[in-house]
Design brief:
34 strands, Rossmann fold, 4-stranded antiparallel sheet, alpha+beta, Peptidase_S9_cat
């Protein structure tokens, strides 16, 4: 399928040369998924498996990469896991039904490539709990089960490559506490050691009390909305490696003691950011690093000094680019590294010999390797004595930020608003807009995720209020810091909450913005509570009240911050786009807003996308949206023609 570029006007004479290059790129190129979705090392680090657009490839520094398994467009590869050096598990998910299946492949390697020896298939919903390294012909597999509205899992010792199909029956389950635990954790001896269940949005930790019994006992309950993610068990079976925000503001990597049921040690806690993950060694027996976002990019703190030394050897080979550890062998002698930068969309490297031998095995976005992507700057804006907000400005590479009024600006508030956040990583909307000559500003306003509990809490019930204050403060800071941003050519564009924010922005700051585009935007706050999915879900209703406000006691307040009830005050052209199958923000929001704008004779466009939901599932939908959006931006953001007078002509 061919796409057509939607821009037709050059913003200044300097862009004529660039436009000739840009016209070669269709919009779909900026929204295609990365070539590689997952990549992991075998336990020894000698073999590598990765998923590439629905196909699974296995190889190494000495064994040619071979396509060993693939799925059609009705499925996607959900999870890859090595069970041993030559046995690989591939979990797939049906895109329409959501059903999970697990393919097990035994492989053989030689100088010509990889061949399949035999295969097995687990046709039940579930996940692999333990690969049982000392029992190569079996694994522990947890089968998802449902009891009323509660989801739990039962663990089975599944025989690999057996002559007869294994029957998942209640009497053959490996665990006790059936009906309680959904997430099981084994120790380094492959015994069920801990588990997690959830009740009233609180995590409950279960622990094995006696070695002679499989029965678990609940030993700890977190607060509501506590984050608690277990990464492993120490060699003495007394401690867990966990990321949690229990009784703290930021998520931290900690040691949780099973005997005292408490956090006894902090491995790493960032003063301003949530810890995102623990990178475990390939054998799963020890953590080697933790990760966190800093200035919108993934950073790391090394626990294992040898892993840090190897990483530094690798990073020194290309100091101008960023490096992220995807996976590591137990001794850190082998690593999978992602290398990327502002104008480098990313490569995956397989590094062996303690970082001395690194080979790129795939580009993440090969169709963009020779394309000039956006330049980026990160800046902070103080919003009060306690907090500053982070913002990301992306702009065309040929633009000098000191060159006054040289580029129009589009503000893109992210959706959510609570817990969602923007980063510096390649984003289709941003790169497409920059490719067409715009600068794009994104703001992690209060309520955004990644900055701790309190920062998120600051955004509660601040729709149209403090959140918009933050966005406006960042915009004004950008204007004062970067002369290239043309203050007379600025529009807003967002989806979901971002669509709401775009319309509220022109309501609040009519002199700042020339236009606004809302995709699937919330226009009527009380209407959010009227959908069946909310009315039939008490927990969701209470959460929505916490985030937005309670219409039973705050109706007038909610209406005062709803665009549909303030439509008469809009002075700026807006575009409303919505899908008819949106189950999160009903298309009725856009119909109501359009009706009110029409009633008041206010300029706007309404575009309805038949059969589209709250987000896009195909590039066809992206193409359709931008066929409307780009001409709209051009109309309202084009640079006025300079009329030469007789005096200036002389």
């Amino acid at each position: 399928m061919k796409w057509y570029l939607l821009f037709s006007v050059v913003f200044s004479s300097i862009t004529f040369t660039l436009q000739a290059q840009q016209e070669k790129l269709p919009v779909e190129d900026f929204f295609r998924r990365p070539v590689v979705g997952q990549a992991i090392l075998s336990p020894s680090g000698d073999m590598l498996v990765y998923e590439k657009v629905g196909s699974v490839y296995v190889g190494s520094q000495t064994v040619p990469y071979t396509d060993v398994y693939g799925v059609n467009n009705r499925f996607y590869i959900q999870h890859l896991e090595w069970l041993s050096e030559d046995v690989l598990a591939i979990q797939t998910r049906n895109k329409s039904s959501g059903k999970i299946g697990t393919m097990i492949l035994e492989l053989a390697y030689d100088e010509s490539g990889v061949t399949e020896v035999r295969r097995d298939f687990i046709d039940v919903q579930g996940y692999i709990v333990d690969r049982l390294p000392n029992q190569p012909n079996a694994i522990l597999f947890a089968q998802y089960r449902w009891n009323d509205d509660k989801v739990f899992s039962d663990v089975h010792k599944y025989p690999l490559f057996a002559d007869k199909p294994y029957r998942f029956q209640k009497r053959s389950k490996f665990n006790a506490n059936s009906g309680k635990i959904i997430e099981w954790v084994t120790d380094q001896g492959s015994r069920l050691r801990a588990g997690i269940s959830y009740e009233d949005n609180k995590p409950i930790l279960w622990s094995r009390q006696r070695e002679s019994s499989r029965k678990m006992k609940s030993i700890w309950t977190g607060d509501e909305d506590t984050y608690f993610n277990i990464y492993g068990v120490d060699e003495n079976n007394t401690k867990l490696w966990v990321i949690t925000d229990y009784q703290r503001d930021k998520r931290a990597a900690v040691v949780f003691d099973l005997a005292s049921a408490s956090v006894t040690e902090v491995i790493y806690e960032h003063p301003e950011r949530d810890v995102r993950s623990i990178v475990m060694a390939g054998d799963g027996q020890a953590p080697i690093a933790v990760t966190y976002l800093e200035q919108g990019r993934l950073n790391r703190y090394f626990i294992d000094p040898e892993a840090q030394r190897v990483y530094e050897v690798i990073a020194a080979q290309e100091e101008t680019l960023n490096h992220t550890v995807f996976d590591s062998s137990a001794d850190a002698s082998s690593m999978i590294i992602a290398r990327y930068g502002d104008n480098n969309p990313g490569q995956l490297l397989y590094c062996s010999k303690y970082g001395q031998a690194c080979n790129a095995f795939e580009s993440l976005f090969p169709w963009l390797d020779d394309v000039t992507l956006s330049n980026k700057v990160v800046f902070e804006t103080a919003i009060n004595d306690q907090y500053s907000i982070e913002a990301f400005l992306s702009y065309p590479a040929h633009i000098d930020l000191n060159d006054a009024n040289s580029v129009p600006l589009i503000i893109m508030p992210h959706g959510g608003p609570i817990g969602v956040y923007d980063t510096q990583y390649l984003t289709g909307d941003v790169e497409w807009l920059v490719h067409n000559g715009y600068a794009v500003l994104r703001v992690n306003y209060r309520g955004s995720g990644g900055y701790g509990r309190d920062f998120e809490q600051q955004g509660m019930q601040q729709w149209g209020r403090a959140i918009e204050d933050d966005i406006n403060a960042a915009v004004q800071n950008a204007f004062s810091s970067y002369a290239a941003l043309d203050q007379d050519r600025v529009c807003l564009f967002g989806g979901s909450y971002g669509g709401y924010s775009a319309v509220m922005g022109v309501l609040r700051e009519p002199d700042t913005y020339k236009c606004a585009v809302s995709f699937a935007g919330v226009m009527d706050l009380p209407l959010l509570f009227n959908t069946s999915s909310v009315q039939n879900n008490e927990l969701l209703t209470e959460k929505l009240k916490e985030i937005i406000g309670d219409p039973s006691v705050q109706m007038e307040e909610l209406k005062s911050y709803s665009p549909v009830y303030n439509a008469q005050n809009i002075q700026t052209p807006i575009m409303l786009i919505h899908g008819t199958k949106d189950r999160i923000v009903d298309v009725e929001h856009t119909w109501r807003m359009s009706h009110m704008l029409s009633m008041y004779g206010i300029e706007h466009r309404r575009e309805i996308m038949r059969n589209s939901g709250h987000s896009f599932t195909s590039t066809d939908e992206v193409k359709q949206m931008y066929e409307w959006v780009m001409p709209f931006f051009h109309k309202h953001l084009k640079k006025p023609a300079v009329h030469r007078t007789s005096e200036t002509a002389e």
